[in-house]
Amino acid sequence: MELLKDFIDFFLHLDRHLSEIIARYGTWTYAILATILFAETGLVVTPLLPGDSLLFAAGTFAALGSLDPLVLNLLLFGAVITGDNLNYWIGRYVGPRAFTSTSRLFRRKHLERTQAYFDRHGGKTIIMARFIPIVRTFTPFVAGIAAMKYPRFLAYSLVGGAVWVTGFLWAGYFFGGLPVVQENFGLVVLGIIGLSVVPVIYGMLKDRGNKRRTGKSRQPAAGSRQGIE
Question: Which secondary structure element, helix H or strand E, spans residue 55, and what is its range?
């Protein structure tokens, strides 16, 4: 329980904790931030590490002169692309070995469905998932399992990573210094997280609506059976 409390405190007061890290480690802060983002995107066991909010906070301190924004941008971009690639190749290695016709948990037909999905929608999935917490951690792994063609994966990973890192970092740079943001940084973090999960909620509601419409269209008309009888 105490660990969860500390975790939540770290998220909501990310600005304060990052300030302490910069004061204590100086230039090594770049490596610490890069490691966190590398793990958040590259290791399926660490999906709860901060991503969007960390980039925004880093941009805020870059605006204050504590960090170099250009160095930060390039370094963190490299970290998330490296993480993406590690995650992809782990999935690529695990997929063929885990999904067999004899496995009850990892059935071959599930792998074939995943492969078909990434053949059709893999590109936009790689880019859109970058902006959704937790989902962005698992997407490269699943893309690897689905054996998505690597040049295609890499191209969309580069585009998504560049837009994600640059967008949130420079948003923090230009807006993080505003008094209203500094005084309500915890609420800003929650707002960032909330906006990130909106696409997921929208997608779930849309799928549910489509299933309901499909179910109704398959039902026979009320008087059809009576008419036959």
Answer: helix 52-63
- Cβ atoms of 133 and 52 within 8 Å: the answer is yes
**Cβ neighbourhood burial of 138 (10 Å; 0-12, 13-18, 19+):** middle
Range(s) of the domain holding residue 127: 2-216
Distance (Å, whole) CA 179 – CA 182: 5
Apex 45 CA angle, 86 and 155, nearest 5: 30
Structural domain count, the chain:
1
Max CA distance (Å), the chain = 83
Of 197, 168, 193, 196, nearest to 8 by C-alpha is 193
Asked if residue 104 belongs to a domain, the reply is: yes
CA distance 131 to 176: 19
Q: Give residue-wise pLDDT tens across range 126-170.
A: 888 888 888 888 889 888 988 889 999 999 999 999 999 999 999
Q: What are phi and psi of 66, to 5 degrees?
A: -75, -25
Query: What pairs with residue 100 in β-bridges?
Result: 107
| Nearest 10 degrees: Cα torsion 44, 140, 86, 100 | 80
Q: Identify the H or E element spanning 91.
A: helix 69-98
Please give the model's pTM, rounded to 2 decimal places.
0.77
Q: Does 227 map to a domain?
A: no
Tell whether 212 is covered by a domain. Answer: yes
Query: CA–CA separation, 140 vs 38, rounded Å?
Result: 13
